[in-house]
Amino acid sequence: MKRSKLKALKKGVKMKRAYLIIPFAIILLLLTSCATTGEEQATKLVTKYDIALTKVSRGGDETTRSKAPVADTTLVDKLRYHYDDEFMHTIWYASENGFELTLYNASDKNIILDWEKGLYLDYDNIGHRLLISSTPDSEKDKPQSPSTIPPRSNITEIIYSADHTNPSTLLGVYVRTPLLPTEYKKAVRFNGKEMKIQLPVRIDNTTYNYEFTFKIVGVRQEQAKSNLLFG
Fold it and tell me: Which intervals of the chain are annotated as region Disordered (predicted)?
């Protein structure tokens, strides 16, 4: 009787050890998997474009009291460009994900940006309707209201292409397709290509048709940022 109890006791201790070892092994396996995935993500390369604002024209005149675009290196992670004239000061940043514009009204009159009459001309010179960040993607096909910037005020918008924004039947939300290829082998062939933003600007009942020309001056690869939380 004592021997059978002793055997049962030893068996119970072994089972308890097994119950403790199995969860520990599972946790160790998950941590190892996460670390491996993190290493893979750290070595994954993504395609990046260097896009410069190279020319600005107003009503077809490139020299009407305007200054040439100037590179702004104040930020580490992005290269922005300045363009100024007697009406406004602008800062631009362009990437495959759109055009970021900050505009300061330097005049003593309201500046009105007519987004609905604006146009994005892609690398093949094909026109697309503009879609600004303050407009919901679900309203991309509706007329967009102009933006009014009072004197000594500013506005920041990210300008995108309405044609590159479409609903996803799988996700149930709108998805934005990059304006340029994300595969490096395809992307390098776009080096030297130009894209344009045409934007009518109304000031005191006069419309000035601005055209901002951007040029791809470099295509490179860099390491993708890893997510430390999820490995």
Answer: 133-152
